[in-house]
Design goal:
Elements (H helix, E strand, L loop, with lengths): L7 H17 L19 E4 L4 E4 L6 H4 L18 E3 L12 E3 L16 E4 L8 H5 L3 H13 L6 H6 L2 E4 L3 H39 L22 E4 L25 E3 L31 E3 L9 E3 L7 E3 L15 H8 L2 H13 L7 H4 L3 E4 L7 H38 L8
Parallel strand pairs: 8-11
Antiparallel strand pairs: 1-6, 2-5, 3-4, 7-12, 9-10
């Protein structure tokens, strides 16, 4: 084997140096650019410290803030128009660095407290709305996570985050275009979220009128075809079930086969009965432990006691954890959709909380849960009034689900757009 001569080494080193220089000088541009800005200069990378100065935040809890006179608060912790407030510490690494840009304070004083950071804009800061979107890009999120992992103390994290390199368009027009484009998506998401919240509020208000109030035997709002029917009666829930309620499995979440069942945990059920599918269950579940269409799984412990979810056929194989119990209504006497709606009413949630308080910690036993006094319409029409109530509330659920789906699509679209409108500095490292 031969060796390179001394005279060849300088040539090789020079060639390598040229290649590295060419790679380093490659223009910094995003994947997606507006047509009228295609021929504008490339972006530049700057440290956050060039755009923002970081201040100390207020190390007080909200509870203590309620008792402190406003004039004693540090001015350094007061937010101003255009400030950025990123998360400085969190149990979840993905939450570190999430930020909001304050562009509409409306005269209301806002105080940044730990574990957030307060970044005050400098005169050379980009156009309003741009940096708030920039903080959602891969370039900034990755840089912040890296510095968070290197930082051993919270106090030193502000200095580290200030050194994070961020891509900035050379043209103000491009900054404005990006801020307007992504801001319009934010407006759509906010409008749809407001619509969904209004639907949920309407449903809660309607439920209070479609079921009798405690101590009453007739609902405030009754459909015309049922107004001449007899009054409602209270029946213990346990008398309307086909089987004694049982607890869920006690197993770790994870995958153990090609198609294990979905694992529903107490933390997966929302306050209005929605369920976000989580991980699949680790081994130990048998067909007998699977939940069926019409089963209801209420939470029996922790802060979510009383929240419940009605299992749907489209959920597929599903098992639940030990903090949930199983309720299976007798379909000849009690519709699962009717029961599920009543369990979410304020009067029922209040009833469930009372035994929970007696235990000294959030929790309710199966026997206590199945003793819930359930207001029932007369059975002379073969569950017709139950069906009517379930249908109207179910139609609202459909609208709410459709709105939620639209919000998810808009957010997914925005995430994809953010990654294309901002160049990824990591690809050049």
């Amino acid at each position: 084997m031969g060796f390179l001569s001394v005279n060849i080494w300088p040539q090789c080193l020079g060639a390598c140096g040229n290649m590295m220089t060419q790679k380093r000088l490659q223009p910094l541009v995003p994947k997606l650019r507006f047509p009228e800005l295609q021929d504008t200069p490339p972006w530049t990378a700057k440290p956050l410290a060039d755009l923002y100065g970081f201040k100390r935040t207020l190390p007080l809890s909200r509870k203590l803030l309620n008792f402190r006179p406003r004039d004693r608060l540090s001015n350094n912790a007061l937010c101003e128009e255009g400030d950025i407030v990123p998360t400085g510490a969190s149990e979840e690494m993905d939450d570190v660095g999430k930020a909001i840009e304050l562009n509409s304070l409306d005269g209301e004083p806002i105080i940044a407290g730990t574990p957030t950071l307060l970044a005050s804009r400098r005169e050379s800061v980009p156009v309003p709305g741009f940096v708030g979107q920039l903080f959602q890009s891969v370039a900034v999120r990755t840089g912040i996570k890296r510095e968070a992992q290197r930082s051993k103390v919270y106090g030193g994290f502000a200095k580290r985050i200030a050194s994070v390199q961020v891509p900035i368009p050379s043209m103000v027009a491009e900054q404005q275009k990006i801020a307007d484009c992504l801001g319009s998506l934010d407006d759509l998401i906010a409008a749809e979220s407001h619509k969904r919240d209004a639907l949920r509020h309407h449903k809660r208000a309607l439920m209070q009128q479609l079921f009798p109030r405690p101590g009453e035997s007739v609902p405030k709002l009754r459909f015309p075809e049922f107004r001449d029917d007899p009054d409602w009666e209270e029946v213990s829930l346990g008398r309307l079930l086909v089987r004694t309620s049982d607890f869920g499995i006690n197993s770790a979440a994870g995958s153990c086969s090609e198609r294990p069942p979905v694992y529903i945990r107490v933390t997966d059920i929302g306050d209005v009965g929605q369920f976000v599918p989580g991980p699949r269950v680790d081994c130990g579940a048998t067909d007998a432990r699977y939940r069926e269409d019409g089963d209801i799984v209420p939470a029996r412990i922790r802060g979510s006691v009383g929240t419940s979810y009605r299992v749907r056929e489209e959920d597929g194989p599903l098992v639940y954890d030990a903090f949930l119990i199983r309720v299976t209504p007798n379909p000849e006497r009690l519709l699962a959709r009717f029961l599920s709606a009543y369990l979410l009413t304020a009067s029922c949630r209040d009833w469930v909380r009372h035994p929970s308080v007696r235990h000294g910690q959030p929790g309710i036993s199966t026997a206590e849960y199945t003793s819930i006094p359930l207001p029932m319409p007369p059975d002379i029409r073969k569950l017709a009034e139950q069906e009517k109530i379930a249908d109207i509330l179910g139609s609202l659920d459909d609208y709410i689900d459709a709105s939620t789906h639209k919000i998810d699509i808009l957010r997914q679209h925005k995430r994809g757009l953010v990654q294309q409108l901002f160049p990824n500095l990591e690809a050049k490292r």
